[in-house]
Amino acid sequence: MRLRLIAGYWFIRTGAGSGDALRPWIVVGAGGVVYALVTFWAAGRLPDGAVPTHLAADGDADRFGTAGQVIGVWIALGVGMAALAVVTILVAQHGPLGAMNIPNRGYWTVPQRVQTVRRMLADDVAVVTGVTLAFLALVPLWMTLAANSLDGSLAPVAIWLPLVLYFVGLIAWVGWLVRVRYRPRDE
């Protein structure tokens, strides 16, 4: 009962249900769905024996565990990232703006722009955490592919190419946020 009251309070307080308030949750939810689907798929394809729990930089498995241990780690990783996403979105929507690193702070923290910057922050945090959650879906995929390969490894490019693309994309996204999105607007 208390959980419903807390959830009901959250929906009333944030105005969830309107497009702007709901958008960050949809983005993170989409990343969560991708992660959950890949994890579910991968869990059904793990072998009964030793399963790689870590891949070295060259793609060779260097630590092993049971399928149950690996699935437990995948679940913890997904739940942990989803919890981080929820906390950061709620902080963006309701936290003290003085504690946040906002480009052009003087422009964005005047009273008439506070709601706009909170919406922007929540959307941007949701994109980063939602994309990160979807990216982390590669972990179960990599471990399953390695577990089912003949030598228990993956080609290094299968690991490094997505990692480099993720970080280049993240850096480009943050650059766009700072240089374009949070630039003071002409009124």
Distance between the termini: 47 Å
Strand order of the largest sheet: 1-2
Q: How many DSSP E strands?
A: 2
Biggest sheet record: 2 strands, antiparallel
What class, by secondary structure content?
Answer: mainly alpha
Walk me through the topology.
Elements: H1 2-14, H2 19-43, E1 51-55, E2 61-65, H3 67-94, H4 105-108, H5 114-135, H6 138-148, H7 156-181
Antiparallel strand pairs: 1-2
Question: Which structural traits does this protein have?
Answer:
mainly alpha, 187 residues, two-stranded antiparallel sheet, disordered N terminus
Description:
The chain has 187 residues and is mostly helical. The protein has one domain (17-181). Helix content is 69%, strand content 5%. It has seven helices and two strands. The protein has a two-stranded antiparallel sheet. Helix 2 (19-43) packs parallel to helix 5, helix 3 runs antiparallel to helix 5 (114-135) and helix 5 runs antiparallel to helix 7 (156-181). The radius of gyration is 20 Å and the shape is elongated.
Brief summary of the model shown:
The chain has helices at about 1-15, 20-45, 65-95, 105-110, 115-135, 140-150, 155-180, and strands at about 50-55, 60-65. It is mainly alpha-helical and about 190 residues long. The protein has one domain (about 15-180).
